[in-house]
Amino acid sequence: MTRYEEAKQIYAHFGVDTQKALARLSEVPVSIHCWQGDDVIGFDGGGALSGGIQTTGDYPYRARNPEELMADLDKAFSLIPGKKKLNLHASYAIFENGETPDRSRIEPRHFQKWVDFAKARGLGLDFNPTLFSHPMVKDNLTLSSPDKAVRRYWIDHCKHCLVIADYFARQTGMPCVMNIWIPDGMKDYPADRLAPRRRFLEALDEILSVPYDKAQVYVTLESKVFGIGLEAYTVGSAEFTLSYAASRHLTPLLDNGHYHPTELVSDKISSLLLFYDRIALHITRPMRWDSDHVVLFDDETREIAKEIVRADALDRVFLATDYFDASINRVSAWVTGVRNVQKALLYALLQPNETLQNLQDANDWTALMVLQEALKTAPFGDVWQEYLHRQRIPADYLTEVRAYEQGLSIRNG
Ligand code: RNT
Ligand code: ZN
To answer: What pLDDT score does 12 carry?
Structure first.
């Protein structure tokens, strides 16, 4: 008997069908963020990373242009099983023939190479306006700025992005999630918290006046609690984004690095699923703050996955990764983080959820604890290995990553 066959039997004793779990997992798309590959720099010369987010580390071989980023993504994709989407930022627009980059005027044609890349690989595309790392971010403000010209610039940027998102959905034939996150905030106690939020609200209303296919383009709004240098006040707070999304039939996006340290996104999912058709997640690893470390196979990642699976909501939650570690091999960072999201999903799919729910309803917390602890040491690893095997993906990716890295010595980092 193979290790998988044995594992299958052990899980069957728990009342779990491993075949069903493996089949379901292979259908769940995870949207892979392009920005791990180049430390969130992009191709439009915006400038050093700003907006309260930061990459740290000086590992060599960062992708410096579209060709390098696409090659690195291909390498990562070849080592990641299952269904994938590619998540692009507007700053990854490709300008050619000496064209001067201008974010307020970007068009679908600036992303044609990405569309071709996605189509050739059967990938869906997601999109994000880039409202940071740019001279038109004034005093840490964009859509909420008191300066009309600043607001105008970023409203135009977002409107153009919506057109591009619509183009992505039409070209790929797959839904496109367009996520709006603004860095806007203040370092010290504001004198007026209301006006910036009102300006943000009005700016969003104008952006959403662009006609787009609501069945195929999902506009999401991402909240935040603070950023570096923006510790006192964040315009796009949780209350703002949830209320705005609810009132305009948008989709809320929760990044698990964007809450107070004892708040857990895993606890928020069920509430939101009762009020929204869809929700979206940025899965990251906040290490003491919104540090965007590579996602691990850790308790909270598993708990998030369990909540989605237990709510039977795999089709209602847009899963995306969002982290950027510049201190390690970036292809490895992609593969490790995305695989860990998928492992967490498999782990959740391998829980006897009905049995566990019945124990809760029967108030049998003793049996619930014993069973949940027993499941932790069930042969999960053998089922994961079987998944990789079926997907024809090598289990050992470090060797592949190292070999690929050998060929990158011409990049000076
Ligand atoms: C920043 C947000 C946002 C960004 C990306 C690059 O705190 O998490 O999602 O990480 O847009
Ligand atoms: Zn995020």
So the answer is: 98
**Residue among 41, 76, 55, 59 at smallest CA distance from 293:** 55
365 is catalytic: no
Q: Is 202 designated active site?
A: no
Nearest ligand (C-alpha, residue 132): 1
State the burial class of residue 316 (Cβ atoms within 10 Å of its Cβ: 0-12, 13-18, 19+). middle
Q: What pTM does this model have?
A: 0.98
| Nearest listed ligand to the Cα of residue 89 | 1
The ligand 1 atom nearest the CA atom of 227: 7
Is the CA virtual torsion 407, 409, 411, 413 positive or negative?
positive
Residues 178, 118, 153, CA angle at the centre, nearest 5°?
35
| 220 in Cβ contact with 180 (< 8 Å) | yes
Low pLDDT (below 50) residues in the chain:
413
Residue 39 CB less than 6 A away from ligand 1: no
**3-state secondary structure (DSSP) of residue 228:** coil
Residues 6+ apart with CB under 8 A from 75: 331, 400, 401, 404
Q: Is 33 in the pocket of ligand 1 (CB under 6 A)?
A: no
User: Could you tell me which residues are beta bridge partners of residue 219?
Assistant: 178
The residue annotated as part of the active site, out of 35, 114, 154, 181, is 181
Q: What is the DSSP letter of 101?
A: P
What's the helix, strand, coil split of the chain in %, to 5?
A: 45, 10, 45
Catalytic residue flag (residue 325) = no
pLDDT per residue as tens digits for the range 276-321: 999 999 999 999 999 999 999 999 999 999 999 999 999 999 999 9
The identity of residue 109, as a single letter, is: R
CB-based contacts of 17, cutoff 8 Å, min separation 6: 11
Q: How many residues does the chain have?
A: 413
